[in-house]
Amino acid sequence: MAGKMFMRCGGIAVIVAACIALPALADPSLQNGDFSAGLSAWTLEYGAVTDGGGFALFEEDSASLSSTLSQQLTIPALAMQLSFDVLFSSAGAYDFSTWPDAFTACLYDNPLDLNPLISNPGYNDFFYMDHTGVVETVESFDGTRVTLDVSAFRGMDAYLVFDLLASDDGMTTSVTLDNVTISTVPAPGALLLGLVGMSAVGGVWRRFVKAV
């Protein structure tokens, strides 16, 4: 009897494990978002962006001051959110007569027209932060991670651009960018499988209780 009970409990455990709520998945249409392959799949538009060893490191360029990294992609059909981690670091004495160093993120329809798909009012970027502590974002920012709802742009081509916009303000600024992802909802087939599994759990559990 104990052996049968163990088998039933083991069967329940397997089914329950298979039916745990499926998490949002990262879509491969956005490539190398964790920068594990250096800057592969990304385009250095200009400036100084280097492989920091698992993240992209933006620094002030000696010529243009600003630095830009981009990637063209297609927003997946089941897209939910675009997210990334950003860490801003500045040192020096700020000259208040100039613009502060800032980091921005933009999502355009293509690299030619540069029509923003979503943006802060009056600007092209959907995320802005500078070394004075000012942060402007269309969605959410918890101090490290930025999250943007992109479900309205499913199936559309897009041009994702990150900029370090520096100025001759007496500050030396660097920014680290990492974990750029687009999460997607599980496919309908996977959800159906989960519902079938939940039904099976109920049946097995009733039989187990009756047998005990």
Would you kindly provide a written description of the structure presented here, covering whatever features stand out?
- With 212 residues, the chain is an alpha+beta fold.
- It has one domain: Galactose-binding domain-like (Jelly Rolls, Sandwich), CATH 2.60.120.
- Helices cover 20% and strands 39% of the residues.
- It contains two helices and 14 strands, in the order αββββββββββββββα.
- The strands form two sheets. Strands 1, 3, 4, 6, 11, 12 and 14 form a seven-stranded antiparallel sheet that branches.
- β3 and β4 form a beta hairpin.
- α1 packs antiparallel against α2.
- The N terminus and C terminus are likely disordered.
- Output the helix-strand order: HEEEEEEEEEEEEEEH
CATH architecture: Sandwich
What is the arithmetic mean of pLDDT? 79
For CATH, the homologous superfamily is named as Galactose-binding domain-like
Strand content range = 35-45%
Please state the CA-atom Rg, rounded to the nearest Å: 23 Å
- Number of continuous helical runs: 2
Report helical residue fraction: 10-25%
Topology, pairings included?
Elements: H1 2-19, E1 25-26, E2 43-46, E3 48-51, E4 56-59, E5 67-74, E6 79-92, E7 102-108, E8 116-118, E9 127-130, E10 135-137, E11 140-141, E12 145-149, E13 157-165, E14 171-184, H2 188-211
Antiparallel strand pairs: 1-14, 2-5, 3-4, 4-14, 5-13, 6-12, 6-14, 7-8, 7-9, 7-13, 9-10, 11-12
Helix pairs in contact: 1-2
